[in-house]
Amino acid sequence: MNTTLKINDKDDVVVALSEIKAGTVINAGGDDVTAVSDIPAGHKMALHDIEEGAQIIKYGYPIGTAKQAIKKGEHIHTHNLKTRLAEEFEYSYDPVNIDNSKAEKVAAGLKKTFKGYLRKDGRVGVRNEIWIIPTVGCVSNVATKIAGLANQKLLPGVDEVIAFPHPYGCSQMGDDQEHSRTILADLINHPNAAGVLVLGLGCENSSIDVLKPYIGEYDEERVKFLVSQESEDEIADALALVKELMEAASKDVREDIPVSKLIIGMKCGGSDGFSGITANPLVGRFSDLLVANGGTTILTEVPEMFGAETILMNRCANEALYDKTVCLINDFKDYFKSNGQTVYENPSPGNKKGGISTLEDKSLGCTQKSGSTAVSGVLENGERVTTRGLNLLSAPGNDLVASTALAASGAQIVLFTTGRGTPFASPVPTMKISSNSNLAAHKKNWIDFNAGEVLEKNNMDDLAIRLYDFVIEVAEGRQVASERAGFHDMAIFKQGVTL
Questions:
Q1: How many CA atoms lie within 13 A of 466 on its CB side?
Q2: What is the percent of the chain where pLDDT is above 70?
Q3: Spatial separation of the C-alpha atoms in residues 288 and 103, rounded to whole Å
Q4: Which residues does 220 contact at the CB level (< 8 Å), separation at least 6?
Q5: Could you read off the pLDDT of 143-192 as tens digits, one per residue?
Q6: Which residues does residue 223 pair with via DSSP β-bridges, in sequence order?
Q7: What is the distance between the alpha carbons of residues 45 and 14, in angstroms, rounded to a whole number?
Q8: What is the average per-residue pLDDT within 91-108?
Q9: Are the C-beta atoms of 279 and 268 separated by less than 8 Å?
Q10: Which of 14, 87, 79 is nearest to 358 (CA)?
């Protein structure tokens, strides 16, 4: 395996694939470079002398400017590199030519169907679960208790009974309450749920009667309601309703479904210096393949588009989508500023430790998950996806909130890339893809797929096909690590005042 990697011919830096000690001579792009300081794995080394104030290029784009003069072979990180981004930026639509021919050629030889559950509304589930959705946090513990008892009497054909506790549904004001109701309704309508028990308290702002218009039309055999204050024994009554839901769900069988019905969410968290080289571009290749076969992918975490947003804007299929993407970015900047926060805050401590120095550095790596296809849709938080192809979704970078937003928008599976590792889950199967092999070996109970092989075998194209096949297996029922652990998380994006 090579010691360093130059990602783009324009780059001023190489990434250390393993630790480089000071004094080590590295051949980078045909030029010998002597490391003048220790370079940790995943971190950057200067390929030539860089003047103070000069832009530093990685991925072929600026990731910041030099705080001071930097010598050839020197470690480049937060001590000598700063963001070049400002809060105000004027955008212009400069569409690029998009060539999907390579992905289309490969996709033609891949699976075109999978075994899934066709629901009455035409949508498709990849799980046959019973979900218990509390309308308000006051009954979250009750929901968890009901799910635990119901799983002791699980019927054949039903995967699991799952409760999704949360602290909201009351004491929220304005749009914050609206957002909570929308997310809850989205989950109640999710196709991975063969049946849903909506568990209310009775005196909350988002009571069942208030929530029903958000839910819309529903199948009475598959969606049941219980107001706890109106029940003498809400647990016993709930178990009776869950039994009815399980009896209906146990009749469901998997059938051949076109892969064009797959909707896959894409998210990253706990990145390192390898994330933008291995896991994120691998997911991008997968996205291109799925879209080429008529499927849908959703990219989110808007703050981690800052610094790379113009790449996505110029891939918008038309100017109307471009305008929506500009609003997507600027609305999130306004959200930061309205709360007195810096728009271009540096990455998290874990990101920095892994070798990411600025927000541009992280964003240019994060957006690799979008692949190279055109942007065909832009979604508000809680808006259900309707356009096939690559979609952008408004949600923050927080792992649980963003992954819940992906599920609420219709994603049946979430692909989650990570260089640091995490055990969390979301309402849908959440596949962890490691950026490096050490993490995959160390946390086998967390990681589902190792993208670190890219560094060892230079097999991105082959690995993308393997990832495509793995996603199909998960869609057909193969459990991911968080499912085997029994983890199911849900978090709603809170933006407003709590009474």
A1: 13
A2: 98
A3: 6
A4: none
A5: 999 999 999 999 999 999 999 999 999 999 888 999 999 999 999 999 99
A6: 196
A7: 5
A8: 95
A9: yes
A10: 79
